[in-house]
Amino acid sequence: MISPNLACSIFTDATRSASIPLQPEALLRTKSHILRWHGHIIVGDVALRLYKHKNLWKYDERAVRQAAQALVNVDVDPGDLVEVVLPVQRQHEERLAEDAETRDRMDWRGWISSWMYDEAFRKQSAEDGPFSEPGEWRRIGENGLPGGLTWTEFVSTRTAQCTCTIAGTRPLELLTRSEGRWWLPRAYAEVLDRWEQMEEKLIDRARVCSRCGARGPRWSGWRTPTSTGYVTMCPPCSGAEFIAYTGHLRGVPYGQMRARKLRADDYLCRLCQSSRASVWDHCHDHDLVRGPVCASCNTFEGKGIPEYLLQREEVVAHLLECTRCRGERTLPSRFHAAVAQAYLEAEARHASCPVQPRVRLRNMTETGHIFDLYCDRHWTKKWKEEVSAAEAFELVYAFVDQALMAGRPETDVPGPRATSDTPART
Asked: Among residues 41, 162, 182, 280, which is most buried (max CB within 10 A)?
C-alpha cells in the first residue's frame, strides 16, 4: 500500500508515453466528494480504489501500475475522429422538471458544454455587470462558442483555473472544430463513454445499505465514514448502530471535551441524522459545544454560504445549540450580514416597483454592512444600502426569536430585548 503522493509520482512516470492527455494529480483528490460517493478515483476508464488505514488513504501500488499501463495501451489516432454533439444549455426550469436520476447522470459532453456557457456568462458579466440583459451570452457564434467567446479566451481561462478535466484527462487538448462541428479522436471519446458507465455503476453500487440492502438516494447521504473508509448505511441502520445525541452537552466549553473523553464517532450526526459523526462541532464565537456532526455536515456548516445555510431549519437549530447564542438571541458573527441581506431582499424596493431586488454584499466595515441592490425589472437600476451593526443586531435578534418560537425548544433562555424597532426600508 502506498500514499497518494507516491501513487501520483509512479503514475506520472509510467504514463509519460500515453497518447491520452492525462492529469495524474487526480490521484491526490482524496478529499473529493467523489471519494465519498463510491470510494474510487477514476482515471480514464480505470477505477482505482482507495483504502483507509490509521486515518490515511492508501492505494494498492500494483493497481496503480496496472492502471497506468492500461492507459498507455490506448492508441489515440488523431486522424480517426468522431463528431461530438454538445448539448445546448437548458433553462433552470427545464432541468428541475427532469427526473433527478436523469438530470444528475454523468455526461462528459454536457460538462464540456457547461464550461463554454460558464465562460460566456462570466465574460458578459465582467463587461456589462452581473445583472445585464439575459440571453446574449447563450447565443452560439459561428465558431461554435456562445456569447462571442473566442477559442483562445475559452481555453486560456479554463486552463488557468485547472478546471477542465474529466476522468483525470484534459479533453480540450484534443477537441477540434471543423466544418461547423466539434470532433474528438474516436478512441478517446470511447474512453470517456466507458468512464460514464463506470461512474454510474460505482455510484449505483454504493447506494445499497451494507446492513439491510435498502437502496438509497443517488448522491448517497447514507455514506458513513469509518476508520477503514466509507460504508453505506440507511438511517434506520445508522440509528441502530450509533447513539442519538440528545443535547446533553449544551453549555459545555469545547476545551473540556478532551478531558471528558467522549468520542464523536460513537454518535449519529446531529445535522443529517443519517451518518456517523466524526467531530464535535462548536460555536467559534463562544467556544461552546453544539453537538456531534459528520465530516460532510461539518464542512457544509463551516464553509457553506451563510445566506443559503440560514434557509435550512436544521442548520439554524444546530447553530442555536450554543446556549449563549440561544440566550442572547444571536448567531455567529459571520451570519449577521446574511440576515441583513435577507431582510433587504424582502423589504427593499426600487421606488414603487413591486419586484423583489437582488441583493449582494459589497463589503463589511466596522460600522455595518454595505449592499448593492439590483432591480430585475429595471436592468439599469442599481443602488446601495447600508445596514449598521446595531440594525443588524436587531434583525438577528428578531430572526433568532422567530426561529426559537417556531421550533419550541425544550430549553429556552430569554435574552436581552432589542432597543429599537427594526428599521423600515423603502
From this structure: 41
